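Q: Predict the assembly, please.
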Amino acid sequence: MAEEIRAEMVANVWKVVVAAGDSVEDGDTLVILESMKMEIPVISERSGKISALHVAEGDVVQEGDVIAVID
Amino acid sequence: MFESVLVANRGEIARRIIRTVQRMGVRAIAVYSEADADLPFVAEADEAVLIGPAAPNESYRNAHAVLEAARQSAAQAVHPGYGFLSENAAFAAQVVEAGLAWVGPSPAAIEQMGDKIRARNLVSAAGVPVSRGTASPVQDVAAALAAARDIGFPLMVKASAGGGGMGMSVAADEDALPGEYEKISAFAGRMFGDSAVLLERYFPSVRHVEVQVLGLADGRVVALGDRDCSVQRRNQKLVEETPSPAVDDELRQQMFKAAARAGEAVGYRGAGTVECLLDTASGEFVFLEMNTRLQVEHTITEMATGLDLVEQQLLVAAEEPVTFDPDSVRSSGHAIEMRVNAEDPRRFLPGPGRITVWEEPSGEGVRVDSGYVAGNLVTPHYDSLLAKLVVHGVDRDDALARARTALAGFRVEGPKCNLPFFAELLENPEFVSGAYDTGLVARMRA
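A: Predicted assembly structure:
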């Protein structure tokens, strides 16, 4: 079943660590957000394949925006 | 003394510096970005100069814009506060070249302490204890294993280009090292474009204890007090207290001497902080780094000593004597600072927003250094510090009691706010006992 990874706050996308199609494991860093001078890693909570990546470095995400989908 | 001082910062620290500058009868000049036009520090300065848009690189970090504001406002000195340009040696040099006084150490001292490996080697040569570790990056697994035999396990594997707690892991023993090395090296290459890795001795349980120093105009470096900064989340401080509950008088004198030596090694002038790790198992301390500026938590040293550190900084920069006798610095009671941040109290994730309610506590032994008032917008462009709640009591128990009372009178609504975390901390048995380490917050959230 697909799992959507969403932004928990308004933030800038500082680094994108993975690409669509990559295999990831539980605990891997997917992207790193930046807000209020804080770098906030967005972590995968399951193992699987990145079926969609909706952000690029420099993007601004709002709370609730989908960052990636893991199958 | 100068006739005017430009404060190259924002928020609570700009406001706090402006207060002292004005008390000394000196004209205070603020600089501000478009995002900060409505903040109190802009209104309270005698003059305020708009230096650019919200993005820090285009305003508070823009050396050219700050220097231009100094020229335009005929400032005689520049106080950088903390963060932004405060530890930028090139900017300090530009300020001096422009004929202004720089309220801080020399550009050479900033540069020497800014390179972490160089600073470590330099203070070690001056007789300051440092942790065992590689003096330069290791290039492969074989080199890591060879270095590890000298350092001992457990050890910390960390990305040379990393910072803020990212790109670090612990290798428990020799079998674990190759895997951790490959993991961190690959992560560092991907993340920072530099796969170089450093190895350092890892202490499972440490406290972060630092010493406030002041380099005087006559060349002496004096220690003004210690601060325990072990209440941290993501390797960033949330609460500081002085004196450290983990340091006895004998250890304190050793740390003070080491801190003064570290400062003297670079001809330090003005306020600075020597950060150390204290191994709770052995009671030994090692040098971590020196911050060549005023710290956020300088307030607790002020409460305990009765000194205004910004005033001392300005006097040293003007080559005038300080207001106290450097041979008999007296500290009294116990002081605690809590960093009130726009972040949630559970996971400490930031959340900006418009402040709808802002009520500060007051009373004996209570000090609030805030950067905002009700109606202000807290933006995502800068750090999340809203205010510092500082309390001072006759002893630690008294300070804790004052902290609980003061906290109950602090209300912030609008942005996320971590005030409830402090209420929880002040009832936490480990914190209340004083016998805690840097793992405390993680244990509270486990």
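The interface with chain B takes residues 8-12, 15, 17, 32, 35-41 of chain A (CB under 8 Å). The CA atoms of residues 15 and 60 of chain A lie 12 Å apart.
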